[in-house]
Specification:
Strand order of the largest sheet: 1-2
Number of helices: 12
Order of helices and strands: HHEEHHHHHHEEHHEEHH
Helix content: 55-70%
Distance between the termini: 20 Å
Number of domains: 2
Number of strands: 6
């Protein structure tokens, strides 16, 4: 919304969130470094959440931190909007929490196991954060960020398979890694096609990487992702989206059943590059607005539409 309107109030909201997060953390020292810790609430008594009670959950920290890192990037490119002291709060928050996982991974595994785990979408969080840190004007090209970005690019490229329908190329990939390249990835898993919902994070990484000028991810790759939506994910008959990127759905027992509609965190951003895809998303929203407006994704959907319109208007 800030990128669309230039209104500082949106950055003020974000800054308050970061300050609240810092205030809610337990600040301590680990491996000689200042860190912050958060613990999953102990009063959750259902399924996996009960198992997480009282523990740190790095997956959820990654989901959150990638958005704070994007905020950090916006501030870095608009230094006049906020004071250095305010920008310091955000920069330090991102760096301290990224370095926390880096140090833990090196101490425990002597490699980047904790960043990459066993799923592409988990690794995409930390690769995105490394991308924004590496692109920040305060960082003098720290090798650890470059190494993580390069390794993620290499392994994701192995996962992404180019398929064709007639002459149209599109991407298809598995959510688990094709190769075993860290200590944690000892057992070869049965390949699992990427679900659309978690695929958002992989798509978002590729788009952000392309925007910062990466030589790895080109407009041809962006167009292949656009075709993945058009040719495989979009269910034209029902004006919705399939659960998996190969155009199939999960069975009724799977917790990811009926989650393909979750498009706003990555896939929907592809409409910035393709008006035909933008029209698909408009049609989808109009057909499903009563449902979508009851979810917390609706604000992100609105923001995407407004931002694309803003960019298109600037193009004339």
């Amino acid at each position: 919304m800030f990128l669309t309107t230039g209104e500082k109030k949106y950055l003020n909201y974000n800054l308050q969130v970061v300050r609240n997060l810092k205030a809610s953390s337990v600040e301590t020292v680990e491996h000689g470094q200042e860190i912050m810790k958060w613990f999953w609430p102990v009063n959750r008594k259902n399924g996996i959440q009960e198992k997480l009670a009282g523990k740190e959950v790095m997956l959820y920290e990654g989901y959150l931190l990638r958005y704070v890192a994007k905020f950090m990037s916006i501030l870095d490119k608009n230094k006049h909007i906020m004071s250095k002291k305010e920008r310091d709060v955000v920069f330090n928050f991102v760096k301290i929490n990224f370095d926390k996982l880096y140090n833990r991974s090196i101490v425990k595994y002597n490699d980047y196991s904790l960043f990459f785990r066993t799923r592409t979408h988990i690794a995409s969080h930390w690769a995105t954060i490394a991308l924004f840190l590496n692109d920040n004007s305060r960082i003098k090209k720290d090798k650890k960020y470059i190494k993580i970005i390069k390794l993620f690019d290499e392994q994701l490229r192995v996962n992404l398979k180019i398929k064709k329908i007639k002459l149209n190329e599109y991407f298809q990939w598995n959510s688990n890694w094709e190769n075993s390249f860290t200590s944690l990835q000892k057992t070869k898993e049965t390949p699992r096609i990427q679900d659309v919902s978690h695929g958002n994070q992989v798509v978002d990484y590729i788009l952000e990487s392309h925007k910062v000028g990466s030589e790895e991810w080109t407009i041809e790759d962006v167009n292949r992702l656009i075709n993945t939506v058009k040719l495989k994910i979009f269910d034209e008959e029902n004006i919705t989206f399939y659960d998996k990127i190969d155009g199939s759905n999960f069975d009724s027992e799977n917790r990811l059943k009926n989650t393909g509609w979750k498009q706003s965190a990555g896939w929907m951003k592809l409409s910035l590059y393709d008006n035909e895809l933008l029209n698909i998303y408009r049609k989808w929203y109009m057909h499903n607005s009563k449902f979508l407006d009851k979810t917390y994704f609706n604000l992100q959907i609105y923001a995407n539409f407004l931002y694309v319109e803003h960019v298109n208007n600037k193009k004339g």
